[in-house]
Design brief:
Largest sheet: 3 strands, mixed
CATH topology: GMP Synthetase, Chain A, domain 3
Helix content: 40-55%
Strand content: 25-35%
CATH superfamily: K homology (KH) domain
Number of strands: 3
CATH architecture: 2-Layer Sandwich
Distance between the termini: 20 Å
Order of helices and strands: HEEHHE
Number of domains: 1
Number of helices: 3
Oligomer: single chain
Radius of gyration: 12 Å
Shape: globular
Structural class: alpha+beta
Length: 76
C-alpha cells in the first residue's frame, strides 16, 4: 500500500522528491502518512478534498483486496 500511495502522490505533485510515506501499524490497521511539499498540498487535496478522497478510496480498495485495513493521512 505504501508503494501505491507513493506512486499516486509523485504523479500529482510538482516536486516528487519531497514526497514521502510513513507506514505504522496500530489497532489491526495500517496507518499511512503522506508528506508532500507545502506548495503541493493543494494538488494532493484538490477542490473540496476530492482528490484526497479519491486517493483514500483507491488505497483502501487495494487494501481490502489484500484483507488489510488502511487509514491515509495527508500532511505538508
Amino acid at each position: 500500500m505504501k508503494q501505491l500511495l507513493t506512486v499516486i502522490a509523485k504523479n500529482l505533485v510538482d516536486d516528487p522528491s519531497a514526497v514521502s510515506v510513513i507506514e505504522t501499524e496500530a489497532d489491526n490497521a495500517t496507518n499511512l502518512e503522506l508528506h508532500v511539499a507545502p506548495d503541493d498540498m493543494g494538488k494532493v487535496i484538490g477542490k473540496q478534498g476530492r482528490i484526497a478522497k479519491a486517493i483514500r478510496t483507491v488505497v483502501k480498495a487495494a487494501a481490502i483486496h489484500n484483507d488489510i485495513r488502511v487509514n491515509v493521512e495527508i500532511s505538508g
